[in-house]
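Hey forum,

I'm writing up a methods section and want to include a predicted complex as supplementary material. The small molecule is zinc ion. I've pasted the protein sequence and the SMILES. Can someone with a working setup run it? I'll credit the forum in the acknowledgements.
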Amino acid sequence: MKPSGDEKRERPIRCPICGKLFVPRQSDALPFCSARCRNIDLYRWLREDYSLPLPPRWDEEDELPLDPDADQGD
Ligand SMILES: [Zn+2]
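Reply by user p_vandermeer:
Happy to help. Structure tokens for the complex are below, copy them as they are.
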């Protein structure tokens, strides 16, 4: 006899970080395949959060690229 309810837990899902297929019941870091991928996700999230208040906007105004045709309008 095979309890059909358990079969769902045997179906592999895809880790959103590394894209690896793994069986959910074999992971203790769902929805990731491992604690390592969970940490990667957390790290990315934190880094993006910290980088938001620091937009790279110096050297934006002064260094316009020269148009080669602009000089020879005549
Ligand atoms: Zn993974």
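Some notes you might quote in the supplement: Helices lie at 7-10, 35-51. The mean pLDDT is 78.
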